[in-house]
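Subgroup meeting minutes
Present: P.N., E.W., G.H.
Scribe: E.W.

1. P.N. recapped why we're keeping a running log of single-chain structure predictions: easier to compare across weeks, and new members can see raw inputs and outputs side by side.
2. G.H. added today's entry (290 aa).
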Amino acid sequence: MKACRVALLQMSSGVDLETNMGTVEQALKEAAAQGAELVVLPECVASFGGGKVSRAVEQVRQGAVRQRLGALCATHALWLVAGTLPVVDAASGDPRAFSRCFVFDSRGQEVSYYDKIHLFDVDVADTTGRYRESSDYQPGRHLTLIDTPWGRLAPLVCYDLRFPELFRALALQGAEIFSLPSAFTAVTGQAHWEPLIRARAIENGAYLLAANQCGQQGARATWGHSMVVDPWGKLCGSAGSTPQLLVVDLEPAILQQARQSIPSLQHHQLPPGWYPLPTRLWTPNGSIND
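Output recorded in log:
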């Protein structure tokens, strides 16, 4: 791993795509001005709280969101974990969208993507009450690893945080940095957000970059408190409950020391091929290996 300055955007996305994109554009400009090299956006970054995923899918398509994000990355020479966008893949044979996290390099190229695997089908004691993501989304079918200039990145999304085996599978394949675009609810976030992030970072001796939504999106209240946690479980930086751009430096010596002190990745007893889903690895020459 190499040193890297990262920026996490905590925002309160609404249903209007242009307003949300304006927030993202300003944040990327500010991140570049502060010397960031990698930016992480929250889940549902382009459209949130409108109720109909089909409307959001069409908004994203008509708004050429992917092209605009790529152009911003090229303009500011930034790598970007672009939150999530709803994407329908006709070839899947399923009308539901994928909750897809695109990753762009500093030239503005889409290098890879990750589709959220674990869908939030949960009853929560808040004003929404019943969450059923699987009504609108289908689960992803592969893990993703990306060899960035600073180390091997594993993009995951929100509810994936509660599945430690997913993180371990990626760490055993070399993941050093986990990114986690999220829209954790206020109720579950207050109880579980920070301890889960710290646990996943400690277990795998890796940095965890968790960019969360904040504020109110329709009936849903999101927790905010975006944070970066280092491989020893230390909080490197955190946001409050309002919109913020959080800028943090990642230090390779901390990762190396944590893995030397607690070499749990060398002590696992898991057989080869134990995780049931394949991994797609992007390398700098542009190849994708399944």
